[in-house]
Specification:
Number of helices: 9
Largest sheet: 3 strands, mixed
Order of helices and strands: HHHHHHHEEHEH
Structural class: mainly alpha
Length: 311
């Protein structure tokens, strides 16, 4: 296991510890004081904890080397965990709304509002620090699972700020109905966050191409090599933090095969030096033997049934 793999696992474990502490604090004070806004935050943190456990499992699984059943590695487990996390977030939002509506008509203020404010302040500080760590490591290692977990916790910071301000308002105004309103606002924020994650993880799971600017840069790296006549039909995708591409590269037809192979190795090194982990397949072609292919033409050719010659 590499240092990067260890870093990813340790960071995911940090998220589990912080969320466990916050769930217990919010739940104890929320139930004891009867504050639905705190209970909704505890439910939210419970989802965070489950998401962190899933992210930890996904990161641990994704760094497993390729095997006989997974020739391209296990990176998709990260994308899968992000999709599951998104669905959990949406479900949690629905549960919070239901609980909030049930308490909208309450007239009695929750007890121990001061302690609730303190708990939310602790939650803000912890989530702010942990989220920054998760996002930093997630982007540094190109881990979608860690970055998704970090962005999730960063959104929690704002919901915690809202809940804390609501508890303060209830303390000074006596408006008990604010408890349910705060919980609904929290749910709306959570649902919006979950929906964005659903879209993002779905794109990754359906093998969306790398961003256009990255593909253009890859083509520029290939074209910059003097021996390369041209390139076409670049196809890219991601599997967790692992990127994959295949491309057709044109060479002078009189070049020796060993020379072509050496240039292909050089291209792979240059692409990995700039973009990190990359599974690269280069299809060398002698220039001028046929018209350049496109992604569309390759797709159409792949759908054609094999023609069997009759003897």
């Amino acid at each position: 296991m590499t240092e990067i793999d260890v870093l990813k696992k340790d960071t995911a474990y940090l998220s589990i510890i912080s969320n466990t502490v916050l769930v217990l604090l919010k739940l104890i004070v929320g139930i004891w004081g009867g504050a639905v806004s705190l209970i909704s935050e505890a439910l939210h943190s419970s989802v965070d904890l489950l998401a962190s456990l899933i992210a930890f499992w996904a990161v641990k699984k994704s760094v497993t080397p390729p095997d006989m059943e997974h020739d391209y590695g296990h990176g998709k487990f990260e994308n899968l965990s992000a999709a599951v996390e998104a669905l959990l977030i949406v479900a949690a939002a629905g549960g919070i709304v239901y609980e909030a509506v049930e308490h909208m008509g309450q007239e009695k203020l929750p007890a121990m509002l001061e302690l609730g404010v303190l708990i939310m302040l602790v939650s803000i500080v912890i989530n702010l620090w942990v989220s920054q760590r998760l996002i930093k490591v997630g982007r540094m290692t190109d881990s979608q699972a860690l970055e998704a977990d970090g962005l999730h916790l960063r959104a929690d910071v704002w919901t915690s700020v809202g809940v804390m301000l609501g508890l303060v308002l209830m303390k000074f105004t006596g408006w008990a109905w604010l408890d349910g309103v705060i919980a609904i606002v929290v749910a709306v924020i959570i649902f919006r966050e979950g929906w964005k994650m659903v879209v993002s993880s779905t794109l990754e799971l359906t093998d969306v191409s790398l961003p256009e600017e990255q593909e253009s840069r890859i083509m520029a790296i290939i074209d910059a090599v003097p021996e390369v006549v041209g390139c076409h039909c670049l196809r890219t995708r991601k599997s967790g933090s692992y990127k994959l591409l295949d491309v057709h590269v044109l060479f002078n037809g009189n070049m020796h095969l060993s020379h072509v192979h050496a240039i292909c190795d050089e291209l792979e090194d240059q692409i990995r030096a700039e973009f990190g982990s990359f599974d690269i397949l280069i299809h060398p072609e002698p220039a001028g033997i046929h018209a350049p292919e496109t992604k569309e033409s390759q797709y159409e050719n792949a759908k054609k049934p094999a023609e069997i010659e009759e003897s």
